[in-house]
Every structure is written in C-alpha cells, then in structure tokens.
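quick one, two chains, predict together pls
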Amino acid sequence: MNAIAVAERTRPYSTVAETASQTLSMAWRALKKMRRNPEQFFDVTIQPLLFTAMFAYVFGGAISGDVQRYLPLMIPGIVAQTVLTTCMATGVQMREDMEKGVFDRFKSLPIARIAPLAGPMVADVVRYLIAGGLTFATGMAMGYRPHGGVAGVAAAIVLAIFTGWSMAWIFTWIGTIARSARAVQGFSMMLLFPLTFLSNAFVPEKTLPGWLQAFVKVNPVSHLVSATRDLANDGAITGQVGWTLLAGLVVILIFAPLSVRSYKRHL
Amino acid sequence: MITAVEAQGLVKSFGAFRAVDGIDLEVGQGEIFGVLGPNGAGKTTMLKMLATLLSVDEGEARIFGVDVVREPHRVRQLVGVTGQYASVDEDLTATENLWLFGRLQGMRSRDARATAQRLLEQFGLEEAAGKPLSQFSGGMRRRLDLAASLITRPPLIFLDEPTTGLDPRTRGQMWETIRGLVADGCTVLLTTQYLDEADQLAGRIAVIDRGRKVAEGTPDELKLSVGDSTLQLQLAPDADQALARDVVRSVVGVEPVLTPESGRLNVALQVADAAGDVLIGLRQAGIGIAAVSVDKPTLNEVFLALTGHDAGRAETDGMDLDDLELMEVTR
C-alpha cells in the first residue's frame, strides 16, 4: 500500500445524500439535548400561555372593543411573535454550542460544513410546533373559534413553522459572526422588536400613520400574520401565503450560504 | 518510505505575531513523531493547520500526498484528531458520542453501535458506556476522545498534548494505548511539553521554539546535545562563583550555566560519573557546596542548550495563544 493508495479511498466532498444523513444525525443530537435539558422548552411553553392571556386582556378592549373580537386579530400575531422568539433562541443556542469542545471534533470530521448548522435547526421544528400549537390552544381556551377549522389551523401552523425555520437562518448567521452568545441575544432583540411590533400583529394596519404603514406592508412578519389570519380564520389560501413562502425562501437563499461561509471562517 | 505528513515552510500569523514561522516537517508511515516545545511555541497551531482546522498563511502541506489547502475534505478522512481538551459532547453518553461520530462518517446505525461497543471495551470504558460524561474523570474523557478519533480507523492520528494534566498512572495507560495504535499500523504525530514523553514514545522528535524548528533527531541524539545527565550544584553563600565556573570548565570541558543571584550552577554531563570529578575539583579548590543533585536532562535544559533561553520564556514572550486565535476568529 503506498501513499496514493491510502489517499485513493478518500472522496473529495460529501454527496447530497450524505449531507442529508449527516444533518439528520446532527438533528438527533439536538433532540437528545432537548430531552436532557427540558428548560430549553420554557420559552416555547411559557410565552404562548402568558403573552396570549396578557395581550388579550390588556389590549382587547382598547383595540377591538372586547376580548372575544380581538382574539382572531391577535392569535395569529402571537403565533408569529412566538415563532420569531424561538428563532432567536436557535441562534443563541447555536453560538453557545459552537463554543463547546465537541464542535472542534465536528470541524475535524469529513462532513458537510452545513450539517452542524442545519441539524439543530431541523430539531427546532419541534419547538416551533409546540409554540404554534400552544398559542392556538390557549386562544381557543379563551374563546377563540377559528373558522378555518382543523385544516386551516394546521395549515397556519405549518406555514409558521416554515417561516420560523427560514428566519432562523438570520439568527444562525448572527450566531456565527457574534463574539458571544450574549451578543447574539442583544443583537437579535434589536432586530426582533421592530420586526414584530412594526407589523400588523397586534393592531389593525390602517390605524397607523402613513409612513409606518409603508414599512408594515413590506415587513415579512406582516405577511406571515395576514397569511395566518387568512388560513386560520377563513380557511382561505390567499396571496399572502405566497408572499410569506417567497420571503422565507429568499431569506434561506441569502442567509444559509452566509452562515456556512462564516462558520467555515471560524476554522 | 511512504510519507504520511509532508510540510514545507508552514506559516501562520495572528496579527503581527508569527505563531508558526516557516516549519518543514516529514513524517514517515508507521512512525511516532514527537513535536516538542513549551506552551505557546506554535505546536498546536501547526497541528491545526495540518488537520485543516486553521487556514495556512504560507507554505504547503500534504497528508499522504493530499494537499491540505486544496482538498481539506479528503485530508479529514485520513486524519483522526485528538486535542488538548476532550472534544466530545458533554450532554451525551459515551456510547451516544461514538455512535454519533460513526453515523456522521457514513456508518450504518448497527455498525456504528458495534464499533462504539468495541472501542469502549478496548479503552476500558464499557462500564461507563451509558453514564453521562459529567461523571467521567479527566483520564476517561481523554480515552473517550481518542476512541472517537479511531472510529473510521484513519491511517494517521494527531495527538495534541495527549497526557497534559493526567496523573502518572493514567499517563502510563495513555502511552500504552499510543504504542498499540502504531502496532496496528497507524502513524502518530504527537505534540508534548515533556521530554520524557517524547523520549518514551517517539522515534523522531522535532523541537519547536517560537514558531521555528530548532532541532530534529532521535531522542538519543537530542539528549546527547545536552549530555546524559545534569549536575546541579548549590554553592555555599561565600563561595567564589567565578572560580567555581573555571574549575568546572577545566575538569569536564563544559561551560556550566551559572545563576549568580542564587549561587546555582548547572553542568551538563556526557556521563553521570563525571559528577564525582567535578566535586573533587571543587573540594581541591576550596569551594564550599550547600547541595548537590544529579538528574536526567529536562526539557528546560534541552531548550537552554538548543535555543539559549529556557522553556518558560517563550510563554511570556507573546500573548497567550488562545487569545491570538480568538483575534483571528473575530478579525
């Protein structure tokens, strides 16, 4: 056996199938960690319960006259907000994870560079599912009756999961460029607050000043909220659904390569 | 000879500091090659470049003929890396760790489980297989870490200070394991701060200081450069230090290293027996002695002989290497 023979058994890159399998293995790791650190689920369980009740009773009367009429407007807003907060947690946890010794091993293995990033994000679908499901459940417990029925609500949750998953790439990218997990948290909050509150999530768009309406109309969160309302409240697949899907795709196409590039530079 | 590692003029800079400053290296298949040097000498940085974990600023390196910069994915299939700090997942059990690393490298689930089982037995970890890593001792973590590097039986293993921080017994076990690897046909490139470790394990040693290679050879060749043993003398407080130095020089023909403030005199000896001659000479010259010892040469003395400064200084010369790597990352 000579040096050429030793090297010949190697392959120059991971195939797509290998990359998918590596990503799933990484997702398995993330799920194991979730099960062993259940406090990771606090944000996706407490927030939907607390925010739904709080916002409904505080703003309900002022905005829609009473709580019951506010719920169809607000629940999709809370879904969007919760999913976005969950994304932020994805980025923060990614940063914390990357500081651990095991990431040195991941870097030294012949695996696709995207797998350590994409794996935890696949596992996070569970968190989005809990977040979206719990928000609707809380709303219904308070008297919210979505006219879209089971199919409409299910479609709304799936759309929210997709949007959350795609937006998570932004926060993962922040995670790969920030100096510390704390910095990711700080920066993400600055991004998250304007995105959720300068949208139609909690108030009707037409009550806002014109210049603000202009921003609200292009904010992807507004599209997610409108699409969720259309699906859950009316069972209608409208153009808003398309815009939301498109926005999600654009975000993935921009931020997934950026994340992988900056993760590679950490080498 | 088949070349496992081949590097020419490797350079890595962190800002203005050249952590690795033009190192050539050639390691043959089946060798244990030791890279010896103090903290901050550039050993880990060099290893990380060879393992594709750090970018190469200048120079080139090949692993079994595969270029480290151009085909990193191939190189990663040829090298198992075990770092200074155990790179295993704290939240998983030992079995789960090994299973995951096996799966990531394309093994079927069943094969990965069987391999994990075999390695845990081989490394005496089967009883701890299902325990969380928080209950592992430092030695167990290192062994698990090494096991993780061997899952796909790579032909080349990089060991970065494999025994730093381990107690003597665990250290001996680690040495046995490393010898076993080579008996199985592996090539090992290891870094260490301990001359005795390099001496025990390595067939050839490169001594690294401030990013440069200052010597290379077999352990015996290196030790000959500083003598077989070292005579350490503590002179009496009123002794004539200059006279003592002259006496030593005339008796053994070696320039002793004198620390005037403490009255200590170190003499490198080709044979330990020569110590007696030195003592007799000092007695005849009427020079008083407070304490005497004869020891094997330490890394510090090898360093002193090769570089003219002691091993501790390289550490304080620059910044801590971890800080420098952090700078690199954020740059």
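Chain A has a mean pLDDT of 89.
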